[in-house]
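Subgroup meeting minutes
Present: P.N., E.W., G.H.
Scribe: E.W.

1. P.N. recapped why we're keeping a running log of single-chain structure predictions: easier to compare across weeks, and new members can see raw inputs and outputs side by side.
2. G.H. added today's entry (316 aa).
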Amino acid sequence: MSESASGEASTRTVVVAVAVNLAIAFAKGAAAALTGSAALWAETAHSLADTGNEVLLFVGLRRSGRPADERHPFGYGQERWFWAFLAAIGIFVVGGVLSIDEGVDAIRHPKPLTNVPVGVGVLVVSLALEALSWRTAHAQLREEARARRRSLAEHVRSASDPTATTVLLEDSAAIVGIGLALGALVLHWATGWTGWDAGASILIGLLLVGVAFLVARRSKGLLIDESPPPDVLERLRGRIVAEPWVGAIESLTAVYIGPQRVLVMVRLLPVAEVARLPAEELMAKTYDLRASLCAVEVIADVEITLVPGADERSST
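Output recorded in log:
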């Protein structure tokens, strides 16, 4: 999947997620007010956090698409990672902390639930809508993983675009959270014990704290110049050594400078007969290799350094 196609798919994924979570947040809020359920209040905060976070992801998508300029010669791709990191903070504070606080308050001040069938109905509809958003993010990531010949799990761990991954994690947490809230309502209704509802709210909060940690860790890794995964480096290495004049690769370094945008630095040892060619011919070969690598969409720029072989080093 090309960078432009991936960006369009990420935008579609985020737009679907925002629309779904906004509708769900209003429905859950109304149901929480009617039932008095701490778990439903936690799920309302969860959906509001998801909506706000996906707006942040959308901002990141728009800002990262700006063209390169003098101050940012490689473009603004890293903006997407910054806004994803802010989304992780939102998941932690608005979703995780508030849900745990609501659960603790329900333990300290237990209240009987009312209109439980209304809450159950809202949660069932919310589950179906969340599944729609989850399916959109999952389809995008599955297509990207197939294009890179990775498993879905490997791609989620190593993808350089955190947008769809964040939506998938949020929606997965939302589906689990709805299951917890639904179970708590039914058990409270059946047993009359308020602890089910409070416990579900705390578990939802802990679940969101875990999701926030995963999203923040991935964004942090990308923001500090993370290297592409081994499969990308191996394909790049194979493309370089396929050149008949390249004897060996002394070192190969690549770092992400944006989603699906890589800066490459390589030190090459030419074969002995090529190493003895005039400097202008060596430069021409180096230029042709650099041009062929830069033609690959994911490669932003390449710096090639020619290193003399052992015999040339000893003669100097």
